[in-house]
Amino acid sequence: MPGEVDLSVSVGALRLSNPVLAASGTFGYGIEFAHLVDLDRLGGIVVKGLSIQPMNGAPPPRMCETPSGVMNAVGLQNVGVRAFVAEKLPALRAYRTAIVANVFGYTVNEYVEVIRVLEDADGLAAYELNVSCPNTARGGIHYGCDPQMIAEVVSAARKVARRPLWVKLAPNVTDIGILARAAEEAGADVLTVANTYPAMSVDFRTRQSRLGSLTGGLSGPAIKPITLRLVYEACHAVKLPVVGLGGIERPEDVLEYLIVGASAVQVGTSNFVEPTACVRILEGVERLCLSEKVFSISGLKDSINHKYR
Ligand SMILES: Cc1cc2nc3c(=O)[nH]c(=O)nc-3n(C[C@H](O)[C@H](O)[C@H](O)COP(=O)(O)O)c2cc1C
User: Fold this and answer.
1) Which residues are catalytic?
2) For the segment 161-210, what is each residue's pLDDT rounded down to a tens digit?
3) Which of 19, 28, 99, 265 has the fewest CB atoms in 10 Å of its CB?
4) Average pLDDT of adjacent 10-residue blocks, the chain of 309 residues
């Protein structure tokens, strides 16, 4: 019965009403979903990645389906941080849900500049740095693949950010623990694990990529077992809280991420299938907890049973 399970969780210093947040890039700036979803029911909303200048994004097609997944090459289209603050944030502030600003840049200075603009605005709960971005000053190597580059961008962001700093790691790395520790030592408060997986989809008849950008990022149920392992490994590599995401479509998926150590989760691709997915999943989580006699969801965190090890 509603109200019998304490769904609240802590993610570092932030207290959330429940562990289900909408993931960046899959829920617009949040406000576009207000006529479909009661935004106050969500644990939080991570808004589309924000850059210092508006960006038009990649050529179409930008999304295609794969078995059990979706590929996208949106190219980080966004209105730019100043338009977000002026046009989107005022309406978002009316809601109780935690708003997390996802931030990216092509140089360290661009990350810093975006945060500086956000620092002057009210109504944000945290920043999430998307480090799955090419560093143009270093020949396009992604920040998230190199511990030194992660350290550089996180420590620069830390100097200007007064709000909690979440760092969203890339999944295509040999040892997530090394990257997680680099972010922790540079001053991250929370890790988000993880982003999409670099991938490719080709139509053999046309011999063309199904995406305008040739390659893209894979998300959805196909990536869940791979990312679940990354979340488990990150949780055991650092003391920081970890927010897990990748392929969550059922309430059971949320519980699995919490059991391997996540403090909260985000739901991404499922929002494209069903705009009300976050609320449906959350309601299912509450029902599952009741049937399993779990009365405080935070008790599930890191409760994995290692019996078969
Ligand atoms: C269309 C699309 C756009 C995305 N845009 C962003 C973004 O701007 N910033 C970011 O950090 N992640 C972005 N992501 C990644 C998602 O937030 C999430 O990490 C990933 O899709 C895995 O979760 P899922 O399997 O639940 O979708 C995007 C994903 C999709 C599918």
Assistant:
1) 133
2) 999 999 999 999 999 999 999 999 999 999 999 999 999 999 999 999 99
3) 28
4) 84 98 98 97 98 96 96 96 98 97 96 98 98 81 91 98 98 96 98 97 97 96 98 98 98 98 98 98 98 96 88
Q: Cβ distance 166 to 100 under 8 Å?
A: yes
Whether residue 198 is preceded by a cis peptide bond, meaning omega within 30 degrees of 0, is no
The continuous run of DSSP H or E covering 252 comes out as helix 251-259
In DSSP notation, 267-304 reads: E-THHHH-TTHHHHHHHHHHHHHHHTT--BGGGGTT--
What's domain 9-300's architecture?
A: Alpha-Beta Barrel (3.20)
**Residue 290: what residue type?**
L
Beta bridge partners of 15: 10
Residue whose C-alpha is closest to residue 126's, from 226, 262, 13, 236: 13
Q: What is the pLDDT of residues 287-304, one digit of tens each?
A: 999 999 999 999 999 999
198 backbone dihedrals φ, ψ, rounded to 5°: -55, 130
Contact 153, 129 (CB under 8 A): yes
CA of 1 to the centre of ligand 1 (A): 33
In the block, which residue shows the tokens 């976050």?
A: 278
Tell me the C-alpha distance between 146 and 295, whole Å: 41
Phi and psi (nearest 5°) for 100? Answer: -110, 125
User: How far, in Å, is the centroid of ligand 1 from the Cα of 25?
Assistant: 5
Closest CA to 111 of 88, 77, 143, 139: 143
Mutate to test the pocket of ligand 1, among 219, 230, 272 (most ligand atoms within 8 A of CB): 219
Query: Cα separation of 224 and 194, whole Å?
Result: 10
- Phi, psi values for residue 174, rounded to 5°: -75, -40
